[in-house]
Amino acid sequence: MLEGYRIVGRRAAEIAASVESAVGSGELPPGQLLPPMRQLATDLGVNPNTVAAAYRILRDRGVIETAGRRGSRVLSRPASTARGSIRVEAPPGVRDVSEGNPDPELLPDLREALAAAASHHAERPGLYGQAPVDADFARLARAGLDMDGVPDGPVAVTSGSLDAIERVLAAHLRPGDAVAVEDPGWGSLLDLVPALGLRAVPMGVDDDGPLPGDLERALRAGVRAVVVTDRAQNPTGAAVGAHRAEELRAVLAAHPGVLLIEDDHGHAIVGMHLYPLAGVTDSWAFVRSTAKAYGPDLRLAVLTGDATTVDRVMGRQRLGPGWVSRLLQRTAAHLWASGAVDVPVVARAYGERRDALVQALAARGVEAHGRSGMNVWVPVADETGAVARLLHAGWAVAPGARFRLSAPQGVRVTVSPLTAADIGPLADAIASAVGPAPARAYG
Known about the structure:
This protein is an alpha/beta fold. Helices cover 40% and strands 14% of the residues. The protein has helices at 12-25, 37-44, 48-60, 111-123, 135-147, 161-172, 187-195, 212-220, 242-253, 291-294, 307-318, 326-338, 343-363, 383-392, 420-434, and strands at residues 64-66, 72-74, 95-96, 155-158, 178-183, 199-206, 209-210, 225-229, 259-263, 283-289, 301-305, 375-379, 395-396, 398-399, 410-414. It has an 8-stranded mixed beta sheet with strand order 4-11-10-9-8-5-6-7, sandwiched between helices. Strands 12-15-14 form a 3-stranded antiparallel beta sheet, covered by helices on one side. Strand 8, helix 9 and strand 9 form a beta-alpha-beta unit.
C-alpha cells in the first residue's frame, strides 16, 4: 500500500512524526492512502487507540484527511509541503518577476526612524511589565483606521499579517472547522489553514474580490470563518469596490455568528478607496500590514477587531512572545508621523507598471488581471508549460499552483522590478508562452 515506505513508532507522537516526515520528504505523496488503523497497529505491535491518536494528530496538523470507511489519505496539499516550495529558481540571465516583493526604490529609508526609536529607548528603555502596544503607535494606527471607516476597536500589534490571521483563527476556531478563503488566493494563507487543522473552502474571485454567490454557498455549508482581502489581492490584484462591498455585507449580515477577517496588506501602496466589511458580524478582525509599503523586514501589522477577539489574541500573545518589539512599533510610528511614504506616488508607480502590462497583453490577445497592487494574474491553459516556456525566454514567473485550490490555472507576474522598457518584451514572451486563452479563466 505504501510502496516501500515503512511507518515506524511505538507512541502516537512517534507514529505521527514518521508519517509527517515522509510527507515532507515526498516519500508519501499527496493522495496516498494510509493503512487502516487496526492493520497499522498490528504491524507496529501497538494498541489501535495509539494509531487512532496518531492519525488524529496528523489530521489536526493538516497532513492527512480521514473519511470513515474510505480510510485516511495524505491531503492533496499537506501542511508539511509549503506552497512556497512551488517556485521557479531564476538562473543567471533570467529576469525574476515571481517573488512578490515591493520595489526597494519605493521603500522609505529607515535610518532616521530607527535612530528616533533608539533615542526614545535610551531615555525610556522598554522593560517587562510595560504596555504591549506603544501609545503613539496605537494613536496613529487608530487614526488611520478611523480615516478609512474601519469600525472602532482596540489596537493590537502582531508580527505581520499572517501572524495576526493565525492568532485570530486560533482564538475562535477548533480543528475540523471550515474557513472560506479566496481562490486563487494568498498561498501562505492556503497553507496556514490546514496547518491549524482547519478545512479550506474556496471562494471564487473576480476583479472586485470574492464572488457573493460563492460566499453565500460557503456560509450555508457551515464555514466558521471568512478571510477577505480588501485591496491588492494576491495573486489577482482584485480590490473590493463599493458595490461588491455592499453585496458581501448583505450576505454576511445573514450569518452574524461567522468570524470575519479582513486583510488590508495593500494599505499605503494602493490609491483606491477602502470599503471595509468589518462590523457586520459579531466577531471580526481587521489586519493592516506594514510590509508592502515600509519593507517586509519591519515585521509589523496592526490588528483591530471586536473587543473579545482582540483580548483573546493579546492574552495568548502574552503567553508566547509577550509583545512585538516596541522599538519596531516606535519606528513605524515615526514613519507614519513623518509621512515617509508618499502614497499617491507609490500607488501611481505600481499602477503604471501594472496597467501597462495588462494593456500590452490585451493588445496581444492575452487575458490578464491586475486592478490594484503589484501583481498581474494571467490565466493559462497549461500552467507548467507556460512557466517552462517563459523561463526559456528569460523570464521567471510564479506558478499558479502556489495560489490555487480548485481555481483554473494561471501564472502570477510581479511588476515591482519592471521598467517601461521591460513591458513590451515581457508581454511578447507571455503571449508566446501561454497559448490560447482557456475557456474558463477566472472567477
